Description:
Layout (H helix, E strand, L loop, with lengths): L1 H23 L7 H26 L10 H27 L9 H24 L4 H9 L1 H20 L4 H32 L7 H25 L23
Helix pairs in contact: 1-4, 1-5, 2-3, 2-4, 3-4, 3-7, 4-6, 6-7, 6-8
Amino acid sequence: xxxxxxxxxxxxxxxxxxRYFYRLDKGKPEPKGLVLKVFLFGLLSALVAIPLELMVxxxxxxxxxxxxxxxxxxxxxxxxxxxxxxKLTVVRLTAYRAGAFDEVMDxxxxxxxxxxxxxxxxxxxxxxxxxxxxxxxxxxxxxxxxALASGLMGYxxxxxxxxxxxxxxxxxxxxxxxxxxxVHGLYDFLLFMVPIWGHLPGLxxxxxxxxxxxxLRSRIRSAIAQDRRAGRTGTGEVAGPGAExxxxxxxx
Length: 252
């Protein structure tokens, strides 16, 4: 029974958040089949992350054991860069060139869904067989963190989709990945510092998530406004490159 409850607590938050972000795209909801495909690929990508993170972790030997450099490397490279790069790759392989990807807002939706698919399997592997308290804590911290980091990256993915040229497209992709790695890495850094500094770093997790939520909400509003000005919302047509108005706000 405890295993079933743990499994439910691992999966339920991801399903709830997928539904929440899916419903934010009210103008032109994405095809459910494509959303499911992105979610499942995101879920399977968590299995790819395991050997990749182990391989990258081998480079920790370049630093003094127990040093701050090792913690930073584990936080921002092993966890942050590897996992967010995998999520970005999932979106680029499944939805980025799809005809249904016809709004900046779609970048947020698809990238969040990929991130939550990843978080779903990661959560299952992490909480099943452990105390229920772990599942509850992760439901309000780790799962939202994956959604927020991916969503912030997704805004840039959406901007990249309508970039005027390849150079601009690449710049937006790198910008989005950097933002996601920064948020994700900071989250893990706070966790990894708990054994060293005590519970104080852990208290920073909730403020980090709240700030991330506010930042993502701002980007969602910006994306919807840009799509509306460009005539994408509800038109059923894909706007050409550079279709945003000159007054669009390019947020960091």
